[in-house]
Specification:
Elements: H1 2-12, H2 24-27, H3 37-44, H4 51-63, E1 64-66, H5 70-76, H6 78-88, E2 97-99, E3 102-105, E4 108-111, H7 119-123, H8 140-174
Helix pairs in contact: 1-8, 3-4, 5-6
Length: 175
């Protein structure tokens, strides 16, 4: 079992050299669950919500700020906006964000705090069926491949769990 967990853990971490530093994911983001800016703000200041959610919202707002309007966001990442509305519905109040720390470094454009970038940037993108890959993202091929393997592992674990449960039921019926 520990080998399986280790394998899944490794599959979730994509090799950083695959990033081609296009910066598209820094220009366009949403908070999980399709929340609006006001809702993320409320979560970050909440005294009732789970601590991990509050920390997640605070970390997110420490680097991301909202676009003035969805139209502005569409100009930067139309595919991303479309994909988000496909997930949450056209009437969703979801807000679109861009990072405050993307800027000019000499003659290049990049992350102004690269060495100190937060954990959420270091972990991005996590292979999952709902992960959105920006056109040309260097992680896409490997990310999709890894997710297929993770899915197969999860499916086989679920089958083992179901078999075990059936055996326990059979034993209980015999008694
Ligand atoms: S902190 Fe750096 S890596 Fe993270 S989103 Fe901003 S620009 Fe991108
Ligand atoms: S979109 Fe992909 S390749 Fe481009 S900076 Fe983000 S993670 Fe790297």
């Amino acid at each position: 079992m520990s080998n399986i967990l280790e394998r899944v853990n490794n599959l979730l971490k994509l090799p950083q050299h695959l990033c081609n530093m296009c910066g598209n994911c820094c220009r366009m983001a949403t908070f999980k669950g399709g929340l609006s800016y006001e809702e993320v703000l409320e979560l970050a200041n909440s005294k009732e919500a789970e601590e991990s959610q509050v920390i997640g919202a605070r970390d997110f707002l420490a680097i991301f700020e909202p676009y003035e309007s969805t139209e502005d966001a569409k100009k930067i990442g139309p595919e991303f906006v479309e994909s988000v509305y496909e997930t949450f519905g056209k009437d969703s109040k979801v807000s679109f964000f861009h990072c405050k720390f993307l800027g000019q470094i000499g003659d290049k454009y990049g992350c102004l705090i690269h060495e100190d970038r937060p954990q959420l940037c270091r972990m991005y993108p996590i292979p999952h069926e709902r992960t959105f890959y920006f056109p040309g993202c260097g992680f896409e091929k490997q990310g999709r491949k890894n997710w297929e393997e993770i899915k197969n592992i999860l499916q086989s674990l679920e089958e083992k769990r179901a078999n075990l449960q059936n055996k326990v039921k059979e034993e209980e019926t015999k008694e």
